Amino acid sequence: MIQALVVRIVERIPEIQPLVERLNTDLKFMVDCGFLISDPVPSEASFSRMITKVWFHRLEKAIQGT
Q1: Residue limits of the Transposase InsH N-terminal domain (predicted)?
Q2: Residue 51: what pLDDT?
Q3: What is the C-alpha end-to-end distance of the chain, expressed in Å?
Q4: What whole-number distance in Å separates Cα of residue 57 and Cα of residue 51?
Q5: Mean pLDDT of 22-38
Q6: How far apart are CA 12 and CA 39, in angstroms?
């Protein structure tokens, strides 16, 4: 999922919804993002939770480093 978020930035996809839509319609894009064809595409909510977890993890690291 992290790979898909990085590809989202590189491909200049502005929001999560278009990313999920493209993952659902473009098999090559899906595989390029690290998913198997047999894998279900994560929902917008799953991507949102992942972003939140990464953000809080970085925040914890910054606080501990101070």
Answers
A1: 1-52
A2: 92
A3: 30
A4: 10
A5: 95
A6: 24
pTM of the predicted structure, to 2 decimals: 0.80
Please tell me the distance from the alpha carbon of residue 61 to that of residue 41, in angstroms, as a whole number.
30
SS (H, E, C) the chain: CHHHHHHHHHCCCCCHHHHHHHHHHCHHHHHHCCCCCCCCCCCHHHHHHHHHHHHHHHHHHHHHHC
Structure confidence by residue, pLDDT tens digits, 31-60: 999 999 999 999 999 999 999 998 888 878
Give the CB-side neighbour count of residue 39, counting CA atoms within 13 A: 12
State how many domains the chain has. Answer: 1
CA 55 to each of CA 17, 21, 38, 47, 52: distance values in angstroms, whole numbers, following the listed order: 19, 24, 29, 12, 5
